[in-house]
Each structure stands twice: as C-alpha cells, then as structure tokens.
User: What shape does this take?
Amino acid sequence: MNQQHKSETVYEVKGLNLWYGDDQALKDINLKIGKNEVTAIIGPSGCGKSTFIKTLNRMIENIPIVRTSGEILYHGDNIFDKTVRVEELRTKVGMVFQKPNPFPKSIFENVVYGPKIHGIKDKALLMEIAETSLKSAALWDEVKDRLNDNAYGLSGGQQQRLCIARALAVQPDVILMDEPTSALDPIATAKIEELIDTLKEEYTIAIVTHSMQQAGRISDKTAFFLMGELIEFDRTEVLFSNPRDKRTEDYITGRFG
Ligand SMILES: Nc1ncnc2c1ncn2[C@@H]1O[C@H](COP(=O)(O)OP(=O)(O)OP(=O)(O)O)[C@@H](O)[C@H]1O
Assistant: This one.
C-alpha cells in the first residue's frame, strides 16, 4: 500500500455538535479519519464516545430527541445532506457493538443476512460470500463444519467475530466498533485485536475503547474525549507519550476516569 493511499481522508468531521433534547453531548468536534487507519476513541464514561461513533453512520438518529449541527464529510460529501440515503451510508459504514448480537439464526444465515436483504438469492454466491466473510473475520476454520448450527451455540468471542463477518458480508468501507471486546475474556480479546490489525489493510476502523492499553496496542490515532469535547487527537504514540493537554495527561496517567 503506497503512502498516498494511506493518507486519503475517509471522514472529515467539522464543527459537529449534538444534543439529546436540551443536553449537549458533543461540542464542536473536529477531526479527520484516514483510510486504512485504526482510530481509537477514549475517555471516561459519559464523555460522548458512543454518541460520536454512532453519529458517523447516523445510527444515532434512531433516538428521536437527537439534534445535530455541523458537518461530517464522508469521502467529501456531508452525510447530513438531504440527498444522502441513510441505508446506503450504513451499508458502507458497518457497526459492531459491545455485546455480540447475532440473530437467532444459523451461522450461515447470520452472515448472509445483509446480502440477502440486498437481493442476492443465488445459493452458490451466498455460500461464497459466507466463506469469504468468515475467513476475513478469522472464524471460518472454527465453524466451517457447522454453518447450519444456531449462532447462539458459539462462544462470546466467536459470536463477536460472527458479527464482524456479518458486517463484512455487505462489503463495507468503514467498520465502527463500540467497545467490541469489553464483554470478552483476554484470549477472545486478543483474537479480536489481532483481527483488527489484519482488517485495517482493507478497511478503515474507528473503535471506542475503555482500555488505554488496547488503544495503545491497536490504533494509529487516538481521540481523547472529555465531557463532550475532543480534548486531543493525535498519533497514538504521541498522545500517550507526549500529550499536549494537561487533561489528557491526567487521564492517561490514571488521575481520573
Ligand atoms: N439516549 C440518550 N438520551 C439522552 N441522553 C443520552 C442518551 N444516550 C447518551 N446520553 C448522554 O450523552 C452523554 C454521552 O453518552 P455516551 O453514551 O455517548 O458516552 P460514552 O463516553 O460512550 O459512555 P460509556 O463509556 O459509559 O459508554 C452522557 O451524558 C449520556 O448520559
């Protein structure tokens, strides 16, 4: 991958504000997310991490009292423009949640759920999509002999990788992850972290994490949020070794949070 490709901007957030009713949860957020980068969003509970990440594919608008101002340019186009089709945006920008949330269906049906909704009926093609997606999510070897088994029979870590496979099956460009390992044990967590490292070769990833160690291990850039504000945003090694803001320093050294 050449340098030019790497530095391409996927998201440019400009002056983003967000309110839940009268309560402002995001205040004048400005940041850029580069292609094939992993961006970690850190900060204490309630600082707006989940709100921010869910704004990137407009999932936040499922909450009716939400109001936003400012712009989020996705490949140069403002996602809040009237012309933007939200379903299309959410296909391009997939999401994985804190608790694995497979459907009560077979492993196979979970993965091909999105492609089927998009009208793909051909059995062979669906099988191919399932195999490719499960391989990309590093789950294929563990499930290839039981694709018709219910997804609930998988371990938590496997279920989370299944949810990643389900997100990959519709060929996204960006994957948003909201604390994807916080419900998992250390071994399952390590597998997901390893997977994130592989996935970034093809996808752009933004991940909310409570764990600064995790942010340090897997991300290229880190954004530190505090009470709805983006306090500092920098290359991860810089933010952790040489923070510019006292509040960042206090947080990463464990003085609060
Ligand atoms: N549905 C909602 N309605 C009203 N206020 C909300 C809603 N969701 C979140 N908030 C408020 O917005 C602020 C930011 O919440 P958010 O969940 O984004 O924080 P967070 O940093 O992800 O927290 P955590 O680490 O605990 O998950 C908080 O003050 C929260 O109470």
